[in-house]
From TrEMBL, chains A, B:
Domain (CtsR N-terminal HTH) ranges: 5-73
Family, as annotated: Belongs to the CtsR family.
Keyword Repressor: yes
Designated gene of the protein: ctsR
UniProt protein name: Transcriptional regulator CtsR
Amino acid sequence: METQNVSDMIEQYLKNILQEHQHIEIRRAEIAQQFDVVPSQINYVIKTRFTIQNGYLVESKRGGGGYIRIAKVRLLEDNQVLDLLITAIGTTVSQHDAIAVVQSLFEDKLISPREASLILATIDKDTLRINDTQTENAMRARILIGILNRLRFKS
Amino acid sequence: METQNVSDMIEQYLKNILQEHQHIEIRRAEIAQQFDVVPSQINYVIKTRFTIQNGYLVESKRGGGGYIRIAKVRLLEDNQVLDLLITAIGTTVSQHDAIAVVQSLFEDKLISPREASLILATIDKDTLRINDTQTENAMRARILIGILNRLRFKS
DNA sequence: GATAATAAAGTCAGGATTAGTCAAAGTGAT
DNA sequence: ATCACTTTGACTAATCCTGACTTTATTATC
């Protein structure tokens, strides 16, 4: 048992529920009150512990009837290829290298031809249309990594 | 889903009817009375939930015998609808609206769940991570329109 | 026909109710 | 003493709901 700060406790509480339910819907203020913390700490817990890499999808709505919904998705067991690619990409990637990544995904049968085509459209130089090459490559890296993280999902 | 404010209920009511009918024609005052809200809330519901991004076309008439007509359309069914959508997106689109478009494409079976997931990753605010909202929305618009054009020609 | 009365729907701004962001302060392990 | 992580709260943003006012179309009256 590690030291239990409040964030850990909130994390556990939510994950316990998620073991029996595919998704939960909470009202931020209620959970905050339940654990006697300020509402924004719930955001902190979600940001740090319910990430997409860990297989959690979060959506929310403000205003009357607002909520935060957390869903657990199943992840592929063997995602070593994806991890390697994500590491290789880092924070910046040229269009040339990005195309190579998509190509290898295709060859490994991780994506269909149609999906490859879609991905190529989004990371294309003409789509991004950013003047500064540095900024363009950083943006491309974020998009590509976002996609790779989605590929961890089991269908 | 489970969360229920009145706007959600009105939305659901209308969409239920639209599942069985191509279009519906309502009298604003009647629906308002039915749900015990002021008439202008019907406009609010329509403006926020029955947009072209959601795959709906709305027309109306004032004065005696006035009405509001809502029709469900398929985004890529004909170029007219697609043009409307592209015009609505223009050069800038919020994450909220972009999600609605992807959702519509999915409902029309133009993209698979997996493709939807990948597209959502690319237009996600946390993926793009651009400080300036205007710039972010412009980038999102380019990506989304790139995808729409690809779907138009290749599906 | 022209005008007035009536019958719709549309717009907009404001108050209420939620969640999100961000930076600063606090805490604890090394 | 430092560094990463946690906690806080002031400020921001989105969404819902309302009502006063506006616009448009039809119907009645002269």
